[in-house]
Design brief:
379 residues, alpha/beta, five-stranded parallel β-sheet, 15 helices, binds zinc ion
């Protein structure tokens, strides 16, 4: 067993990180791990942290490894923001922490999971720490791509690139780690386009599979502007359903725990002012998180929708590349019959534009309607 077991399909990146653990000459104080969503950036970062703390370089079973992996190691700090950005105060806290020697392990490791969400001021604060390395402190920054991180940070860290892991490797992980049946694991890995977390969710949650199929089905249904408006509303509500099912339970749990910590009676109709203030601060935080999550869910739905046009294009070109939507081959075929390659490419462009606009804070429904209008089937 090794901490690298769950870092799948990343031989080159793992070799680089392992070398750094084994050879002080290959080690450095700042690392930047990039890779597409779902490629396992944060898994790789934690594995690296564990390997650095482990007396035998990452056995996955000792106390150091286990605590580093589950986030409870005293010298491993993970900043995983659920908000839209990482604030300068958060960055400053990390910088202050970075100045301290490790308390139990050989290294102090600070992982920033979403370095692309650093505000400009937060990035500046962090840059100072990268410019003046402290012995025994290691920064591991994660981001989707190099372009997502300001150039001064890039130039002061070593870059390790993760790839999209092969579908088979993702399926094998689901079977081995999560006990998912092989056929289901393969379907989920393919449908999720190798996004490990999504694949697991699809494999385990029938609701998620149904929602995905509903999204894909939209591709063949838009025949008029009226249909387009309806399809946009459907997409938005599918995403809404997906994000509310995932957050409702968690929000309620957080609220209950907060009330308990404050010694308040959860059943009371009105709460004392200091409790109300804390609860409303929590609600604000939850709302920010919901906004980000909702946007991510819409984006994933668009990735799903994109995949069916891509598949149709593959069918038209007669290329032997595997389809993402093998389970919906009939629908892919139909789309390939009614749309030309140019039209399919046009549809893919329209989806790409909608993703960009939503990423740039255009209200999702607005962007989705404009997109859906361009997705009308040819008459
Ligand atoms: Zn170990």
């Amino acid at each position: 067993m090794s901490v690298w077991d769950e870092v799948i399909g990343q031989d080159e990146a793992v070799a680089t990180l392992r070398r750094a653990v084994a050879d002080p000459g290959a080690m450095t104080h700042g690392w930047l791990l990039t890779g597409p969503p779902g490629s396992g950036r944060s898994v790789a970062a934690r594995a690296f942290a564990a390997a650095l703390q482990c007396p035998t370089g990452g056995c996955a079973t000792c106390r150091e490894c286990r605590t580093a992996l589950d986030g409870s190691h005293a010298d491993v700090t993970v900043l995983a923001t659920e908000g839209l950005s990482i604030r300068v105060e958060q960055a400053r806290d990390l910088v202050a922490l970075a100045a301290h020697r490790p308390s139990v392990g050989p290294w102090r490791v600070i992982i920033v999971e979403d370095a692309d969400r650093l505000t400009e001021r937060a990035a500046d604060a962090l840059l100072k720490a990268l410019e003046e390395p402290v012995a025994r402190t290691v920064w591991i920054l994660c981001a989707p791509s190099l372009e997502d991180v300001i150039i001064t940070i890039r130039s002061r860290s070593r870059h390790v690139r993760l790839r999209t892991p092969p579908v088979e490797a993702v399926a094998a992980l689901l079977v081995r780690r999560d006990g998912i049946e092989e056929h289901m694991a393969l379907y989920a890995a393919r449908a999720a386009q190798s996004h490990v977390g999504l694949a697991r969710r699809l494999a385990r949650d029938e609701g998620a599979r149904i929602r995905r199929r509903d999204v894909i089905a939209l591709a063949g249904k838009i025949r008029s502007v009226g249909d387009a408006v309806g399809a946009a509303a459907d997409l938005a509500s599918i995403a809404e359903e997906e994000s509310s099912t995932s957050s409702a339970e968690r929000d309620a749990g957080e609220r209950a725990r907060l009330l308990e910590t404050l010694g308040a009676d959860p059943a009371a109709r009105t709460q004392p002012p200091h409790v109300r203030a804390q609860v409303s601060a929590l609600e604000k935080e939850q709302k920010t998180r919901a906004t980000r999550f909702g946007r991510d869910v819409v984006d994933r739905s668009l990735v799903d929708l994109l995949s069916v046009y891509r598949d149709a294009l593959i069918v038209r070109s007669g290329s032997p590349v595997a389809l993402v939507n093998q389970d919906m081959a009939e629908q892919v075929q139909r789309l390939a019959q009614v749309m030309s390659s140019e039209q399919l490419l046009g549809a893919m462009d329209a989806i790409g534009v909608a993703r960009e606009r939503i990423g740039a804070n255009v209200p999702p429904l607005l962007a989705l309607e404009a997109m859906a209008v361009s997705l009308q089937l040819p008459r």
